[in-house]
What we know:
alpha+beta, 6 strands, disordered N terminus
Amino acid sequence: xxxxxxxxxxxxxxxxxxxxxxxxxxxxxxxxxxxxxxxxxxxxxxxxxxxxxxxxxxxxxxxxxxxxxxxxxxxxxxxxxxxxxxxxxxxxxxxxxxxxxxxxxxxxxxxxxxxxxxxxxxxxxxxxxxxxxxxxxxxxxxxxxxxxxxxxxxxxxxxxxxxxxxxxxxxxxxxxxxxxxxxx
Length: 184
């Protein structure tokens, strides 16, 4: 399993403990146990490739994401299958697996009653709420900005195609802008 986790993450525990408790990641079925997942948002991610849509997975790998006002989707992300994932450690949640699943479910119920506000209360906030409820890693200081920054060094791309889906539009737009600047 060491290939499907984030080596060097400050939130890791030893590999043996992790392998005992986690089901394998299944990219074909989009199952990411104990993961935070991310996918590009068309146009927004094309311009700012580090901005995208985030969800959090149950222990069985089913994705929950705050997909819009008063709606948390299950097993079908709002903008398509994940292109990146960051697998966390269930032992760092209060009450382990049961605490993880209960916190994700509770955060989802909270967000089913909320308006989606893109720059304030969004999919990243939903994930942060779940981590705060489970007191992940002994902290209740998770927020959307912290999660966005942590996804950069600790997440892994699902595949090379997923990497291209994230970055190719940005590079095409940048090349076109450079070409236009050279002409003008």
